[in-house]
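ENCODED BACKBONE
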Amino acid sequence: MTNKAFDHDPVMRGEITAVFSSVPSGTIVDATLGGGGHSAALLASRDDIDILGIDQDVDALEAATTALAGYPDRVRTSRRRFDQLDEAMGEHGIEAISGALFDLGVSSPQLDRGDRGFSYRHDGPLDMRMDADQTWSADDVVNGYGERDLARVIRRYGDERFADRIARAICAARPIQTTTELASVVTAAIPAAARRTGGHPAKRTFQAIRIEVNDELGVLPEALDAAVEATRPGGRIAVLSYHSGEDRIVKERFASASGACDCPDDLPCVCGAIQTVRIVRGVPKKPSADERASNRRAASARLRVVERIVATRKSDGLPVDDHADGGV
């Protein structure tokens, strides 16, 4: 792997730097560091912030270390999954942060390397592990899951309407050994008329298997809650998502942190809801048309942002005991 392999244009770079332009001085966590593109833009935009970059992909960490070498005193990294935010902060003695960025999904450099097994376009092993030390891989899902469980994964994480047909075809073709073989089996299982639109026929199935292998949606709620808890008032949490399931979780966790409750609007809140953030944008922001045209990964991106506030009870508007009160 060369550092060149992780060169890519970070999605919504300008929008991300704008999001963090007004947060307090301090540490911003790049919870999905990748090649360091977003972090480089943030560091260049302000000289009063530093970065804690988290990634479970050792290749990404190596590439980001090189890309961010111009900021030797302002970058710290931790090889972890992003739901281990507390551990990463503790590793570097950080008690509170000024913001956190999550750029979810798989990166373009990972897709472009056939040996990582993420791509339906490049021949490679059935891998799809973001952490190469993880033993569980795409091979275990493709060749090990029963037909019903495989269909469930493809339907739930891929929004694939032909999930049952695809799962049946995969089970009939076992053992499947490579990504191109899997892509061929999936493509053949989809009716010809449906194959003519919507991009590569195997795209949704590969996405679903990748999400299952890395438990991406399972760890996301805990990671978002931890980021909110760790952020000092005035700081912000921004999330770029690319899949409806991801965006749904982000929306729900941010709504919960904003004190959403079921109490009638014309009556006092009695459910005990506590508000720790304010929603910066009620509707997710999308990339510009120019960016969507020039950067294929940006096509499905959705940006949601919240700002941390002093924790307040919705019932009486009074602050509650909150360790992230800005006094850290």
Q: What stands out?
A: Residues 132-214 form a domain with the DNA polymerase; domain 1 fold (CATH 1.10.150.170). The longest strand covers residues 302-313. The chain has two domains: 3-108+216-313, 132-214.
